[in-house]
Design goal:
about 130 residues, alpha/beta, 5 strands, about 15% strand, transmembrane helix, protein transport, Biopolymer transporter ExbD
Length: about 130
């Protein structure tokens, strides 16, 4: 009995190269078909905009101290009481990064009990 030698099956590298090449051509064509912006359009520059906290926001520091416009606030009720009636609808809290979550939740609860309709937490937006 003579054994036949098996031919080593070659990998279809040519087919793989063709598929990759076709994908490259597809993406090149799809990129050129997309409409471009008008040449005379100038986008808004935000590099020079000063990012400051809203004036009516309550700043919560890591040690539990609360300030508004640079002045210390004794309690949440005192802060809500100092606001005009229309400003009590939305109250913003700007917490420090190191404030414990339990302190932030307790402050939100106190503000709601003092008459705030909605309590909003102002955070830093990450880059997309």
């Amino acid at each position: 009995m003579i054994r036949r030698r098996r031919k080593s099956e070659s990998e279809p590298t040519i087919a793989l190269i063709n598929v990759v090449f076709l994908m490259l051509i597809f993406f090149l064509v799809a990129g050129t078909i997309a409409p471009s912006l008008d040449k005379d359009l100038q986008l808004v520059r935000t590099a020079d905009i000063e990012g400051t906290a809203p004036a009516d926001a309550l700043v919560l520091h890591p040690d539990g101290r609360m300030t508004n416009r640079g002045r210390d606030i004794g309690s949440a009720a005192a802060f809500v009481g100092s606001l005009p009636e229309e400003a009590r609808a939305d109250i913003r809290i700007i917490p420090d990064r190191d404030v414990p979550a339990s302190t932030l939740v307790a402050l939100g609860r106190e503000l709601r009990e003092a008459g705030a309709e909605r309590v909003l937490i102002v955070t830093e937006r990450g880059m997309p």
